Amino acid sequence: MTGTYTPHAGDDHAKDDDVVSLLMRQHGDIRNLFDEVEAASGEERRDAFRRLVRLLAVHETAEEEVVHPFARRGLPGGEAVVEDRLAEERAAKETLAALDEMDTDDPAFLPRLVALRSDVQRHARAEERYEFTHIRRSADTANLAAMARALKAAEAMAPTRPHPGVESGAKNMALGPVAVLMDSTKDAVRKAMGDR
Ligand SMILES: [Fe+2]
Ligand SMILES: [Fe+2]
């Protein structure tokens, strides 16, 4: 154990129907997982990084399916705001893909991870400032609940805590499976949202 602890879905008892609380908690989980990856080495770093990749993949996919479409429709200047966020998400996914092909103990790994972390943090702050505030103000209860359900469906695919006995079996998960994960996240989110 590294002595670090990553909060897990449900720890904060966030209300199931508050999509903004769920999104903010995921931003916190992502930040904590970056901490874990940086603090660990060897097998522990590989495990923590795998969890970070999964959470980032499902979080960004869920935002693309749920949050950005809502902001695009309802936010003044929403088109431009969302295009900026999508460009940041594309860049982050490319860096993530490159990192995923590296050995986590490669000396070049950590500097790239730190750069990604700063990009992801800036991206998250922009979402919180421009999109989440708007969602909280303007979404009706049914819409908030539907978006929260979709987020939960996505989150179920990305455990942020290691599961003994499962992690070692998932050792070979590389980017291919992450792309598959994004696709199945999309399906789960769309199913949870119903026909929109
Ligand atoms: Fe995002
Ligand atoms: Fe986000």
UniProtKB/TrEMBL annotation:
Annotated ranges, domain Hemerythrin-like: 19-132
Superkingdom to which the source organism belongs: Bacteria
Pfam families in the cross-refs: Hemerythrin
Gene3D superfamilies: nmb1532 protein domain like (1.20.120.520)
Full protein name: Hemerythrin
Species of origin: Streptomyces fumanus
